[in-house]
Design goal:
198 residues; alpha/beta; Rossmann fold; six-stranded mixed beta sheet; two-stranded antiparallel sheet; 6 helices; 17% strand; globular
């Protein structure tokens, strides 16, 4: 398993909870985050409201989620290879879209109560292999097509169907991504409020 600990420590991440709070619990949510080269596109919106890359926006939204669900989210990034990110922050965007390796990594954490959420802006490198692997995953798989891209929609719709989950398209420039994920998790009575700088 590739483990990336070369990033900043995000409050609420698995590592942060283990080191600062002394809490190490099994994760309940696995978020698979696309970090392929296309994630460098500057068509997303930061939490401060300015234009930014999809990669930056996903990182910001993951930080919001980890503060809301401390110690419960396992972050797996996938570019040309998959990387488990216990610090909660994604490595730099690069390469291809190896979701299959990421799903193999997530399967090691899988169980009946585990939620799997795939965030991607396009087709993976091995779509049929991803679908076959998804059929062996016990937990529910939800998918979100990010940045309003149509490319990859058919793949992500089918992945969610196989995973007994829900497909969503985020056309908000990712500024509402964390809120959409909270809705998927069924915790919509506690909406996420993001701080903005005037």
């Amino acid at each position: 398993m590739n483990i990336n600990t070369d990033t900043a420590l995000v409050p609420g991440s698995i590592t942060a909870m283990a080191t600062t709070e002394g809490v190490l619990a099994a994760p309940e949510i696995v978020v698979y985050a696309d970090i392929s080269s296309s994630m460098e596109a500057l068509d997303a919106v930061s939490v401060l409201g300015g234009a930014c890359s999809r990669h930056q926006a996903v990182n910001e939204q993951l930080a919001i989620l980890q503060r809301k669900f401390p110690g419960k989210i396992a972050v797996i990034a996938f570019g040309s290879r998959a990387e488990f990110c216990p610090n909660g922050q994604l490595p730099d965007a690069y390469g291809l879209t190896n979701l299959h390796e990421a799903l193999e990594m997530g399967k090691e954490i899988d169980g009946p109560g585990i939620r799997h959420i795939v965030l991607s802006d396009g087709d993976p490198d091995q779509p049929y292999d991803c679908w076959d692997l998804a059929r062996t995953i016990t937990g529910r798989i939800d998918t979100i097509l990010i940045a309003g891209q149509r490319r990859g929609e058919d793949f992500l719709r089918e992945l969610a169907k196989i995973g007994r989950g829900e497909f969503m398209r985020d056309a908000s420039g990712l500024k509402l991504l964390a809120q959409r994920i909270v809705g998927l998790l069924g915790d919509s009575q506690h909406p996420i409020v993001t701080e903005t700088v005037e």
